[in-house]
Amino acid sequence: MPTRLIENLKEKVDVSLRTSKSLGLIDGKVYLQEKVEEEVKHEGGAKSKPTLKTERFLVFEITPPEEPEEEGTDGKKKEKDKKEAEKMIIKMIDITDVKVKEFNEKIHVYHVLSLCCSNEKQPSHLFFMFEKPEDRDRWSDGLRSLVHAQHWAHKPAETEADSAKLHLIKDVTLLAPQPGEAIRLKVETANKAFAKTHMTQAVTAGITVLPVAKLSGNEGFQVGQAVIVNPGSNGEEMHEVAGFGNIMLKAPLKSGHGARAAVTNKDSSTKTFLAEDVKVGAQVLPVQLLHALGGKDGWTRDQEVIIDAGTPSAEKNLITGFTSIVLRSALKNNHVSTSPGVGANVYATSQVEFPIPEAKTDSASCKELVSDFVMQNFIVPAESASLYRLVRSLLSRVNIEKQADGLIKEIDLLRYPRLIEGCTTPTEVRNLISDADKKLHHLREEVQKRIGAHGPAAEMICMILERNIEKTRHHNRMAFATRYGADGGLEVE
I need a surface site. Which of 3, 132, 297, 373 has the fewest CB within 10 A? Predict the structure, then answer.
């Protein structure tokens, strides 16, 4: 976690606290405190070198009530005894969840940082209420990262396994939102440790079969799944898995087998065919497309297979792995080997849809949704900031488009001749156009507020809409003058 974020949390900030044990507000200051100790581990009777262990605490320092001043016998005011402020101390490791909320109480709005605590001696929920939203957001960003890092640091036995689950975001696609949603995203993630392999040789553009290191069938590769070839390089490309091929056997074949010979599992529920002839002694079966690896219905390592079942040359063997991934489309680039027998990496991606409800498009709700999405889908925490910025940017565009469409429709309703449909007398027309002029004038003043300040694009849209409004007002006046002469007593602003 960046040192800057930790240092920011060490600064005392005025807050009010409400807990699950007490609904009353307690005024005080909140800040982060660190305790650094030397830790020496004993392994096999020998001492290891001492390492520094840092433990962090969230401290809430309660503001003491003001006491009335007392006068001494000499008439002078007595000096108050300085009392140490009462403190509530919460271990960072006891904090299980961090959320941001807004509490509206009568005319006051509290910007709330909500914490869940697992320590039975502490309240289960704490609500820190900040006066300024920027203070609350600064604390929520820093505390979320710190809590996440703290929990990982205290799970040494699980760290390696859990790290394997963390994904990087490779691609985000905007989908059509469902009713009640502002936007819906399809987030594609990839993981270097999960469903990963590498090619065993260099490959050229145009091929669809990747010669890969032996797959057991349980790595997580699936038909229809997206895979990334040579991730992180200039030639990185994404493809869809069409199937798998080349079954590796535990023992050499005892007989030769011709193309189209059947290859089945023990109960014949899974079946494929040889794509070409194989000779005695071969340990690789060049088979037709395998449509599933692993799972209940797929091919897996240590599975018994029967080659050429029902013929005199039928024989049994065990699968030790698979050595090719078949792509739906051809490679676009050449991919070279980095060392003998080791080619470009190939790893799978997963796709998760991420809806943003219309009721949760404010900054605080977006941060909470993004944070929860990242945690639930095992995405690297560092991706939260960029995903949040993307969501906010897309919501801004959606809002601009929605407001611009609404303003255009309102302008069209106030444009001549649509404005005067059904009117027969000059007086009715004059009154309608005068009223429309006032509405257009008011609409022009609302444009900036409704579109919002979202950068140069929003400014340009505001200018176009304001110009459109002025042109509509001028058009209405000219149309009335052309039909009824001069301004016909038209009142305009």
Answer: 3
